[in-house]
Every structure is written in C-alpha cells, then in structure tokens.
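Known limitations

Structure tokens in this collection are predictions and should be treated as such. Users comparing against experimental data should check residue numbering before alignment. To illustrate the layout, the record for GmrSD restriction endonucleases N-terminal domain-containing protein is reproduced below. The input appears on top and the generated tokens appear beneath it.
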Amino acid sequence: MMTKADSFREVVTRQVKFKIPEYQRNYSWTEEEFEDLWRDLNNVLSDSENSDGGRNHFYGMFLFDTDDDVYRIIDGQQRITTAIILLNEIRRRLEREGYDEEAKKIEQGYIKDAFGYKLDLGPDEDDQVFKDIVLDKDTIDKDIRTIADSPSQNKLLKAKKTFRNKIKDKGKEFLLDLKTEITNLEVLTYEVDSIIRAVKIFETANDRGRDLTVLDKTKSFLMLQIYLDMKNAQEKAIRDEIELLQTRFGKIYKKIEEIDQEDHWGSISEDNIQRYHYILWDKEWSKSRGERYYQNLLENLKQKIRNSDKPLEIIEDYSTKLLEAFETQEKLARKENGGRESHLLKRMELVH
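Generated tokens:
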C-alpha cells in the first residue's frame, strides 16, 4: 500500500485511467457543494495575492484500488469529478479567448490524453452525458431538464453551468491562477491493490468523522465486518462476498436515483426508507418501542452483528431485505400509481 500527500496535479496527470465502480453512488454534488468549493478556491487566491507564498487548500482523501493502469476510485469520486468539470470550463473559456496553447495543456493533463478520457463514470448513461455534453460541448443551449434522464445527470449538467457562469467574465490571468490553485489542491492518497485493504482504510476514515450518509456508513461497516469474519479465508472468497454486498448497494443507489426522477413522487428520503426498514427488520424493536433505538439504527446494527455467532447470515439478510425495501419504495413512488400512494409517502415522511 502507498500512502502520501499529493497535489491534485500529481495524482490526475499520471498515465492512468480513473474509473468509478458501478457500486458507488452516482454524482451527487449540489449548488451548496459547488459554492463551497468556489469560495475555498477564491479564499486561497486572495491569500496568495496578499502573502509571499499563500497556502494550498486541503481537498480530502482519495482512495484507489489499483490494477496496472486503471485506478478504481473507492473514495473521492465526487471531488475528482467536480474538479475536472471546473478545469474543463476553464479550458473552454481559454479556447474562446484564443489561448489555445494554455487550453491544450489542461485538456491533455486533466480531460483526455492520447489514451482517451482520464475519468470514466461507469458503463451507464451518466458517463455518456459526462463525456459527450459536460466535457465535449462548449455550451448547453437547451434547458438541462430536457437533456438529463436522471438526477445525477442533472447535477453533472448543473456543475458545468454553474462554473461556466462563475468564470464567464474572467480574464486570462484569473483563469490561469484559478487553474493553478485547483491543480495545487492538497489531497491524501491511498493506493492499494486489494479491495480488502481498501475496505479497511475506508471504514477507518469513516469512523473519524467523514461526512457520509447513514446508508454509506452502513455499506462501509458491513464490508469491513465481512472481512473480519472471513479474514482466515482465501482472498478470492472474501472479495467475492464483498462484491456481492457492493452489488446490492449499487442497486440501492440506482433505486434512490429512480425515486428522485420526475415520474416518481420522490418525497421520501433515503434515511427514512432505511429507518422504516429497520423497524420491520429488527424483531426486537417491537419489544422496545419506548426506546425508539431505530433512530440510531447503525449503532444497533453494529452491536447486533458483533454479538452474533453468525454475522455473515445477518449481513446477507439485512442487506438483501434493505434492497427489497428500496425496490418496494421505488414502486410505490411511481406517479402512474395515482394519488393515494403520494399521500401515504407524505405521511411516512412526516413520521420520524
């Protein structure tokens, strides 16, 4: 395993392809995260102008499962994708102003080189929108709602539109300074050649306060518990079991995407779906209604698995039924079902 502090430039300009595995959550950054990144970069720019050396902004942890010239992104996919989109908009702006040499350097270093695009979002339609529209098109003439077929595609297009508007009146000096600050962003990178090592690092990072959803933390914990229970088994057996769990969560993320689409009512949050599932799944809850401990379901799930003599059976049962809960919720949320389901969903969302 390799662990070190790098700049964004040192990581992304390597002669490798970055790939987001299918089981990861799709692109999910919103205006709030765009504004946070923009503000942080501008603060660093201001510091650089008012001091001798300024300071670089820490951009977080990148965790890669490496295989020759392919780096599968286990953690950091949202940050890498967003920075590449912003760099691409800087490239486009420089091209429009006639600075082709500077634009070409950005393209070859961060967007696509002789071996193709630097980043693959996966095998589905998101990757096509990312490459064909977000990266390759200079402008988006249509309403992005008519282009996007999913919430994640909508967010990818919003990222492009947001950053394009941020720099539309900026000159060459600002654009090149901004490009420098993005490429100098400090990152902590972990490179492992085993999903098992990646799982252990990811769970350790999660326990130290990283900002993930309960669902993401649940997936991370369950993967680690599979490893801990099977650590004396062959690595292939452990990998296969972890990949089965990852596949289930990949399907869950897809259902979350579908619930948020326009042909669904989309009113219920993933936290509440997981919470309601836990109430039905954990048979002990009916004996302890006054405690309402399902509100801290992850801690109780951890305790239940750690205290069991058959943890793998619990993990399989919990994750399989959790997927079924999201599949059922997606069916309920379809508008084609009529108004009664919408009323029920709204009532469920109000009951915590």
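For this record: The two ends are 43 Å apart (CA to CA). Residues 50 and 211 are 32 Å apart (CA to CA). Please report discrepancies through the issue tracker.
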